[in-house]
Amino acid sequence: MPHRLTQSRSALPPRPFPLAIALRTALADGYDLNDLRRDMLAGMVVGLVALPLSMALAIASGVPPQFGLYTAIVAGLLIAVLGGSRVQVSGPTAAFVVLLAPVSARFGLGGLALATQMAGALLLIFGLARFGRFIEFIPYPVTTGFTSGIAVVIATLQMKDCLGLTVAHMPEGFPARVMALWHALPTLRWPDAITTGATLAVLFILPRVTRRIPAPLVALPLAALAAHFVGQVWPACSVATIQDRFNYILDGVSRPGIPQLAPHFVWPWQLPGPDGTPLKLTLELVRALAGSAFAIAILGAIESLLSAVVADGMTGHKHDPDAELIAQGAGNLAAPFFGGFAATGAIARTATNIRAGARSPIAAIVHALFILLAILLLAPLLGYLPMASMGALLLVVAWNMAEVRHVAHVLRIAPRNDVLVLVTCFGLTVVFDMVVSVTVGVMLAALLFMQRMADVSGVRLLGEEHPAVQLPLPKGVMVYEMAGPLFFGAAQKAFSALKAIGRDVRCVVLNMSDVPTIDATGLVNLESAISRLHSMKVMVILAGVRGQPAEALARAEIVPMPGRLEIRADLEGAVALARALMALNHATGERSPVQSSG
After folding, report:
1. How many Å apart are CA 482 and CA 568, to the nearest integer?
2. Which of 153, 168, 270, 342 counts the highest number of beta carbons within 10 A?
3. What values do phi and psi take at 482, rounded to 5?
4. What is the pLDDT of residues 224-273, one digit of tens each?
5. pTM over 0.90
6. Contact, 211 vs 231, CB < 8 A?
């Protein structure tokens, strides 16, 4: 049997190396000029959406807007080429803001870039180790809870720019941040607040009228034109813009806005630190960034594979999770060499890509090239975008992330344990951070799952209603049925029923046909039960042991022992053996079990 198993496994075709699978598959399935036209159109549409969003996410993460564009260009292009999802679009995402903003505040752009590279290396390891399938084990209430919590944090961070508030220092903790914004309310500037309201109105209303034109493409230019006109006519009503807030140095001269330059190579650790001077690469710095890098990698893996699953549902294709993780790792390793930071699969941009008619990863490649072209041609104009409008755009992103109606529906219909996990993850994300939320959420969900499994696991005495138990049984024979997984959370409870066996019992049959799995704790409890029963001169017969429990029993050397333990393939055979043993004992008049002849 082992020999035939080895042969059948070797006959399976080797799995292809998970690199650029989506692009290779799309081209191999047949790719013509019509597909190219649709991909180019979809790529330009997504590029229009990603252009302002990438800048807004960079600003929210605490770095100048051009670095968000560099992330979308470099990481977006490389991940599209190497990835495992045909139509996924990658770049900076809102989910990362809560992780990246504290890193950039403490370590500057250089620290953010270095943490991104460390996360990229972890993602690459995850993909090469084929860990993609394990992301599926993160419970849905955990992802829903921390995603909704992230949305609340993002929305809170935008209040400063949306209302034009003057805050000397924005604290890191959520409660302290809310208090700082509350105390800054007297500094509210109505021009910024009106600009935010007008931008939000267009962003929410236009999609209800038509989805052919991306709402940000209309809302942000209109806001920039209106703000510029009002500022020229009434200088007191001017609104802060990107070029008012950010500048860059070119040829030794400080210039406002966004540089009209393509991403250029730079060592990440030579980018500015928190004090504006180049960051120095040290072991202490790597240690300090290790926790943030791990969090970025975990969130990047979750977000990218969730986005790929959404894309599969919309297109009918199947993504390769390991190839996607490898691509995400490569993109996050490469982007910091060109000023980029953390990137992952973006659900909203991916959905836009699909609705625009994307057929292959070429659409995401076109999206990255479109943003590059926009920088080279339109960088001076991008500087006129109001900060309030960028904040309004992220408020819409946060609202979409929160999925208030869906969360309310889940809270209404989900089991109480799942509601507890969701609410806990939401609260921990808001008050602390995503790392604490996911860690506690997964542990809590696992404990509650083990409790549910323990509730369905147990041992019960079989009665005459069971077809395999032909009553009356001989005196001194009892038949028990074991059900459910016998793992460390359920084994002790399951075997507790055997402690009530009286002194008049001479043979116990344990039906294990409904035991799908057993772990070390279950094995120890089974051995203890057999030893205790043997000390009482009770024979044990195991019935219906198969699959993983059979392999575990064999490795633990729980094998037939004359006079103590026998194993039969099914319950009928075990009951028949018990009858035969009791008949022999009765004939010989012995109290102890008779040795079986097998």
Report:
1. 15
2. 342
3. -100, 140
4. 999 889 888 888 888 999 998 888 888 778 889 899 999 999 999 889 88
5. no
6. no
For 494-520, letters b (16+ CB in 10 Å) and e give bbeebeebeeebbbbbbbbbebeebbe
Cα gap 580→507, rounded to integer Å: 11
As a CATH number, domain 458-588 is 3.30.750.24
d(CA 540, CA 534): 8
Strands 458-461 and 344-345: what pairing?
Answer: unpaired
Rounded average pLDDT over 201-221 = 87
For 359, the 3-state DSSP assignment is: coil
Q: Which residues contact 27 (CB under 8 A, 6 or more apart)?
A: 360
Determine contact, residues 525/491, Cβ cutoff 8 Å: yes
pLDDT band at 542, cuts 50/70/90? very high
Nearest to 16 by CA among 320, 304, 327: 320
> Which two tokens mark 420?
């507890």
Instruction: Using the structure block, give the residue that is written with the tokens 């180019």.
Output: 40
* Residue 164 one-letter amino acid: G
Region of residue 130 (phi > 0: left; psi between -120 and 50: alpha; otherwise: beta): left
Q: Per the structure block, which two tokens stand in for 21?
A: 């699978």
Query: pLDDT (tens digit, 9 = 90+) per residue, 95-152?
Result: 888 889 889 989 999 999 999 999 999 999 999 988 887 776 778 888 888 888 888 9
Domain boundaries, the chain: 33-408, 458-588
CA angle 570, 575, 579 (to 5 degrees): 150
Q: What is the CA radius of gyration of the chain?
A: 32
How confident is residue 447, by pLDDT bands cut at 50, 70 and 90? confident
Between CA 376 and CA 369 the distance in angstroms is 11
Nearest to 187 by CA among 161, 213, 210, 211: 161
Contact (Cβ atoms closer than 8 angstroms) between residue 95 and residue 344 = yes
The rounded distance, in Å, linking the Cα atoms of 79 and 121 is 14
Q: CA-CA distance, 515 to 450, in Å (whole number)? A: 15
> How many CB atoms are located within 10 Å of the residue 251 CB?
5
Question: Which phi and psi angles does 299 have, rounded to 5°?
Answer: -65, -40
